[in-house]
Design brief:
The complex is a heterodimer of chains A (123) and B (830). Chain A has 123 residues and is an alpha+beta fold. Chain A contains two helices and eight strands; from the N terminus they run ααββββββββ. In chain A, the strands form two sheets. Chain A has a four-stranded antiparallel beta sheet. Chain A has a four-stranded mixed beta sheet with strand order 3-5-8-4, with no helix packed on it. Chain B has 20 helices and 35 strands. Classes of the chains: A alpha+beta (123), B alpha+beta (830).
Chain lengths: 123, 830
């Protein structure tokens, strides 16, 4: 199941990374042209890229793990640990979001998120 | 059972890999916890209650050096050991290597039991180091360990790729530049025997050094030039520095830029989300060119060239005595490395094998030539003597859920591991005891499946009776299923003047749920014009019924009075329908052209009946009823006709009352009327259901026989297959007794018919003749004339492909209205 080859979808992932960046930038600004709507529409399109044999929607979504707890059991993130401590780590910077492959009710990690984590204790 | 070893392991300083020889080819196994990659970082992390090996351990390497060990291969064969703080024990390089080897066993998904294996060692290993490697293999549970030198392994990978196992006598170099170490070896073949003659190396040179150089020598100076920082480099590199987190983020981008630069001439690095000391937001795009990068690593590469020169001198060899320089290790993907080494030494760089897996691949080829030497003790499958009783919540709204289990049987020396099937979680290897307690992190709104695996001390799987652990997160907890279909009313393009229902959510869909659909509108909405209207009507009830027979649960009316500008026909209307757990229905319509959203929330307990919509529906229903009565009478279907006539009277009274109702009526009258209307519609619906079903069925069989004939005459294999697929489903869609479903299948057959016809000369000629007749109506007379002339020529020369194109072209010239009349009651349709 995990052998699923997602390499061929790399261009999609690159587009999703860009959408994520746009979304992050939009969060900070006030704008009147409802760009968020177009953004959400694009996210929708990615979520419903294909359909499987039973007609359910199949596609990709991204997830921003900012602020989430981190430890070595999390395989959905590739982390660089900053600071001095490795206790109580939280995600402080997201370089790339987690991309999940969604097919009906089940999901798979299609591309790990790339993050920097730091200890809450030193914050 | 195979008699040769077949398995090869590259036990590397920084990365390891495992491969198997299968029927003449070698398969490199993927890392099951890091898919897409086939390597395992040779790093071990000890936590109090678990051992983590590989990528996750590597992340902690620099930050938690007291508990994480890497690069232990350099210490193989020494008496040195590593003190591990968390478990208060020391671990030898042999024990650590054994952990890596055991982890590699879990990569093998072919069901083989691994007892014999070839493990590679550096050319520099002496006999003590070699024996230590063998010992590591034994500790990992291998009964037979055969060693092979890495440069020989790489050479074998090359020789086998070339399929010339007998290589010519002579010398070559194996240049191995990996993530963190560099090795170069001189390999010689003489009388069929291959051996490493000499070697050199640098244990502290590799790809990660190049990433660091990019950040330190290129990026930091460029940032410092434009923004004001005091000692930025130090602030980034020091663990307590203000910008330490940023440093890792830049290293990451640097690595990506490095990889890109192997293919393109420049790469961008974006620096943002940081402030300089004066509070200015840093926002830079730094371009790194290939030549900048090449200059950066030149010194390091020159260092490797010097080592090769030393080897050549020591062995009294000249460049032209060397056949080629075989490139191995991920960093030899860098074009500059290949070119520069070749230019300076004048020895051709050989880049024909995959540098990341070459050593493991070569080891597997070697393993295929080695006999297994283990006496076949009947490898008795470890009988499951363990019984595990698990207890956990099968549904949860938390971000993690506690999993508890009680283990019966002897747990001594056993370990367990829990992984999530989407690949996002791995508990690490933990000692097994009578009780297991583990917090399992859940992905929201999905089924989370976990696997609990028990291993013996050598990482062989021990069978148990436990089933996969399934936990449903988020939905489905208090979420109730929908009792009925939820549909949207749309104009029925197949049936002009009528509307039909499009299914939005199927019955039993679990709440909450949401869906967005986009339709091009089929009529313009002019600003200020009240009679231009769009309707978003959401119904609850079977999709197969008439819209009027279902319950209207949400409605939005958009008229010309509300729009901020003229909305053109064909522009998009985006409809979002959301149903909450408590079944509140939120409907929104968004007009792209005016960037306006119309939104309303409908509560299932409060009725919302739109008077003008009701009036329209009553009118429609009356005429539909008259139509049906007439039809039934014509067909001498007196049973239906009499059933419908009974409804007629009631219909008349409803119509009369509706007519009297003012648009702003506040009484309950409209609700009563709405109910009556619905009842009438249901009656019409059930009285005419059979008729519609019969019509759809007859139509299907007509189309089917027509399609069959056409396929027999001029269909292709694909069309025949599609046809057969549909016919094979016949029993099941006929059994639904849904005229819509049957119609759908007729449409699919119709599409095949269309496809075939547009290839047949007779049909194409017929269409062409029809178009010629209508030439006078066409929009652009001169173009029409030239197309018709060309068409006549195509007919003469029997160029049917050309004729088809011409027909399409001529169709485009026909005035729009004459193509087909569509109904625009709702404003969009299917």
């Amino acid at each position: 199941m995990l052998e699923q080859n997602f390499k061929q979808y790399k261009p999609y992932f690159e587009l999703l990374d860009q959408l994520f960046e746009v979304e992050r930038k939009l969060d900070k600004i006030q704008e009147e042209n409802s760009i968020t709507r177009n953004l959400n529409k694009m996210k929708d399109i990615f979520e419903n890229l294909f359909s499987n044999s039973s007609g359910a929607d199949v596609g990709f979504t991204y997830h921003d793990p900012i602020g989430e707890q981190y430890n070595e059991t999390r395989l959905d993130l590739e982390a660089s640990i900053a600071g001095n401590s490795t206790e109580n780590l939280i995600v402080t910077e997201v370089i790339k979001p987690i991309i999940r492959y969604k097919s009906g009710g089940s999901t798979l990690i299609a591309r790990k998120g790339v993050v920097v984590v730091e200890s809450k204790n030193t914050k | 059972m195979e008699n040769t070893i077949n398995f090869g392991i590259d036990l590397g300083t920084t990365n390891s890999a495992i491969a198997k020889f299968v029927k003449g080819d070698v398969v490199v196994f993927n890392n099951p916890l890091d898919y897409g990659r086939s390597t395992l970082p040779s790093v071990v992390y000890y936590k109090k209650d678990r051992i983590v090996i590989g990528n996750k351990a590597k992340e902690y390497l620099e930050r938690d050096p007291k508990n994480v060990v890497g690069l232990f291969k350099r210490k193989m064969g020494t008496s040195e050991s590593f003190q591990i703080k968390s478990i208060n024990e020391s671990k030898t390089p042999v024990e650590l290597s054994a952990q890596v080897l055991k982890e590699l066993k879990t990569f093998v998904n072919t069901g083989d039991s691994l007892e014999s294996v070839v493990i590679t060692i550096p050319a520099s290993f002496d006999s003590i180091q070699s024996n230590a490697t063998k010992e590591a293999g034994k500790q990992a549970g291998f009964k037979q360990v055969v060693l092979l030198q890495e440069p020989i392994a790489a050479s074998l990978a090359y020789a086998n790729m070339k399929k010339s196992k007998e290589m010519q006598d002579g010398n070559w170099l194996v240049y191995d530049l990996g993530g963190g170490t560099f090795d170069v070896a001189l390999v010689r073949i003489k009388d069929g025997e291959m051996k490493v003659v000499d070697h050199e190396g640098d244990n502290f040179l590799g790809g990660s050094d190049f990433d660091r150089l990019i950040v330190e020598k290129l990026i930091i100076p460029k940032i410092s030039e434009e923004y004001s920082f005091e000692d930025l480099e130090n602030q980034m590199k020091s663990a307590s520095g203000k910008y330490n987190a940023k440093y890792y983020s830049l290293l990451n981008q640097a690595e990506e830029a490095k990889i890109r630069l192997s293919a393109v001439s420049s790469a961008e690095i974006i620096v943002e989300r940081m402030e300089d000391e004066e509070g200015n937001e840093v926002d830079m795009e730094i371009t790194i060119t290939k030549s900048e990068f090449n200059n950066l690593i030149k010194d390091s590469i020159d260092g490797t060239i010097e080592m090769i020169k030393t080897i050549l001198t020591r062995n009294s060899l000249k460049s032209n005595d060397i056949q080629f320089n075989l490139m191995v290790g991920g960093s030899t993907f860098i074009p500059f490395v290949r070119q520069h080494v070749e230019e300076v030494l004048q020895i051709p760089s050989n880049c024909e094998i995959d540098p990341t897996t070459a050593v493991a691949v070569g080891a597997a080829y070697y393993a295929a030539t080695k006999q297994k030497e283990i006496t076949k003790e009947k490898s008795e499958k470890k009988k499951s003597s363990l019984s595990i009783k698990a207890s956990y919540n099968k549904a949860s709204k938390e971000s993690d859920e506690l999993f508890a289990a009680r283990v019966q049987g002897n747990t001594d020396g056993l370990f367990y591991k829990i992984t999530r099937q989407d690949g996002g979680f791995d508990s690490g290897l933990k000692p097994l005891s009578e009780r297991i307690n583990e917090d399992l992190p859940l992905v929201e709104n999905t089924y989370n499946f976990f696997t609990l695996t028990i291993y013996d001390g050598e990482n062989n799987v021990v069978e148990t009776d436990i089933e996969p652990i399934g936990i449903n997160s988020g939905f489905g907890i208090s979420g109730q299923p929908l009792p009925e279909d939820i549909c949207l009313e749309v104009d029925d393009y197949d049936n002009p003047g009528h509307t039909r229902l499009a299914l939005i959510f199927e019955r039993n869909t679990v709440l909450p749920t949401k869906r967005t659909l986009t339709f091009p509108i089929n009529k313009p909405i002019l600003k200020g014009n009240e009679s231009d209207r769009l309707w978003i009507n959401v119904y609850e009830g079977p999709q197969t019924s008439l819209p009027e027979a279902n319950k209207l649960i949400g409605v939005i009316e958009i008229s010309g009075k509300q729009v901020s500008r003229d909305i053109a026909k064909g522009s998009d209307l985006e409809i979002t329908i959301m149903i909450s757990e408590s079944r509140d229905v939120t409907v929104s319509g968004y007009l792209n052209m005016s960037d306006q959203e119309f939104k309303n929330v409908f509560n299932p307990k409060e009725r919302d009946t739109n008077v003008s919509l009701l009036k329209g529906q009553v009118l429609d229903l009356s005429s539909k009823l008259d139509e049906e009565i007439e039809l039934a009478t014509d067909k001498e279907d007196y049973e239906t006709a009499s059933a419908l006539s009974k409804v007629k009277k009631e219909m008349e009274s409803v119509a009369e009352e509706a007519e009297k109702l003012s648009d702003d009526d506040v009484t309950d009258k409209r609700y009563q009327l709405e109910d009556k209307k619905r009842k009438i519609a249901q009656e019409i619906d059930s009285a005419t259901k059979n008729k519609r079903l019969q019509k759809a069925t007859d139509h299907y069989y007509d189309i089917k026989s027509e399609c069959e004939e056409l396929i027999d005459a001029s269909g292709n294999d694909h069309e025949r297959k599609t046809f057969n697929d549909i016919v094979n489903q016949e029993a099941s869609f006929m059994a639904t007794k849904s005229s819509l479903k049957i119609q759908e299948k007729s449409d699919e057959l119709q599409a095949i018919i269309g496809q075939i016809r547009w290839r047949t000369p007779e049909f194409l000629k017929g269409i062409f003749a029809y178009l010629i007749e209508n030439q006078a109506k066409m929009n652009d007379q001169s173009q029409a004339k030239s197309l018709i002339d060309a068409g006549k020529f195509a007919v003469e020369s029997q160029n049917w492909d050309r004729l088809r194109e011409i027909n399409f072209g001529l169709f485009d010239l026909m005035p729009r209205g004459s193509k087909d009349e569509i109904s625009t009651k709702i404003g969009f349709g299917l």
